[in-house]
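Justification of computing resources. Each target in the renewal requires a structure prediction run like the one illustrated here; the chain below, 79 residues long, is used simply to show the kind of job we budget for.
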Amino acid sequence: MLDPRAISLAQIRSEEMRHKADFERSVALYPVRPSLHRRVLSGVGRSLITLGAALENRYGEVKQHAAWRHSNNRMERAL
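Resulting structure tokens:
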């Protein structure tokens, strides 16, 4: 699983390309083995959900830190 703090734009792009390749492979396999097709799609879906959660968590932390800094700046100005 990806560490939310270690996600970079390059990692996101490589994950997207890997997911696209997995999907294309599963589509090609469907006529041969439908059960394998379902498993690959399921795995791709889980990976995308995990990546989305990691991104949401990372940006949630960034927003929280920004809000904390903003409140500290307001308190300093009040003093």
